[in-house]
Amino acid sequence: MSRHDPFLGPEDGRLYADLTQSWSDVGGGVGTYLRHKRRHILDRTRHRHLMIVPGSRDMVQVEHGGRAITCFVASPKVPGSPHYRLLLRNRAVRSLLGEHRPDLIECQDAYNLPWAAIGHSRHYPRTALVAAYCTDFPTVYVRRPFSRWLGKATGEAASRLCYNYCGKLYRRFDSVFAMSENGGATKLRALGVPDVDVVPLGVELGQFSPDKRDLRLRRRLNLGDGQPLLIYAGRLDGEKRPDVVVDAFKRLPDSLGAALLLLGDGPYREQFAGREQERIYAPGYCDDRSDLAAWLASADLYVSGMADETFGISIIEAQASGLPVVGVAAGAMIDRVPEGLGLVGKVGDGEIMAANILSVLGGDMRRMGEQARAHALQFSWDQSMERLFGHVYSKAALRAAERAVAGAAVGSGAFART
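Structure (tokenized):
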């Protein structure tokens, strides 16, 4: 059991709910987080867990004797994304919340779904509301594309409107947390959101390890001794910027004999596939975590162009596998790659990334790998869940109870005056 569980008493366990757009059956940071949270609830508490997520059709799955409930709401696919869907049916979500009546609702995005949770709490004021800042959408989905299509001034103005919206939205929640300082917490505090906590995600430290290195995997890519293997694992789309990684790789000298492995799927994969003659390999999504761990441990350097990480779980997995990292100086990447564990450079600049790759490869790779592994050891799921349940959820429960009592007092006074 969680030692500081705000709801655990002599009665049966309570119901925690997660409400998110960011659900995929094939991985993703939010999906990984939610699966670990469910495992924690089932293994460590007497509580139950409800997830309301998008799916191909309306469907309810009930498992573990009724303690694990997953409600899929029929939702269209996100254009250009093979695995994600847009959950737009707030009425259906409100109906599910009303049917199950969770004690706490956590939202992992800032779009329409938080308003379903807020609306539900008006009818059930003791429901605690928690917001997790998992995507820096004003920059990723507003400023950058608007700047590209409509000009920088328009992009900046639109992103300011969205950040103001985030501030107003998150001030309505009982507790708010980000997954790193530079990946969200600092921005939310600047927007006037009080008391923003940081809850780093975790990594399966026993699964990701340098001990998983397999020379047979390198031979499959025709790599000999001394030929470095660069690796990236994640979506292949505009947000993750794998094109910058490929650009940097193509700038490396041929004499290096390096290869680049892109493990993931998405709209950019087609342009990377079939380029084995250039030593660029894009085999698709790796759906086996053991295989992913083996590939990471068998590589030499992790490379990412993603500028808007809110945590960077793939980076921690690579570091746990003993890899230095070359990335960009933005978002959570700043927190994930401190001095001595690799290099970060200008966003979107393949030339600078190529120079950083050569610098790291020419340095003390063994020492950097050992330090990266030591750095990753601080990120365990047990610590993440203890912070979440013992601190963030405790505060939310207390504030919801205070809000309900205050609301009842106001209602009682109003009734007496009529």
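The radius of gyration is 23 Å. The CA atoms of residues 404 and 410 lie 10 Å apart.
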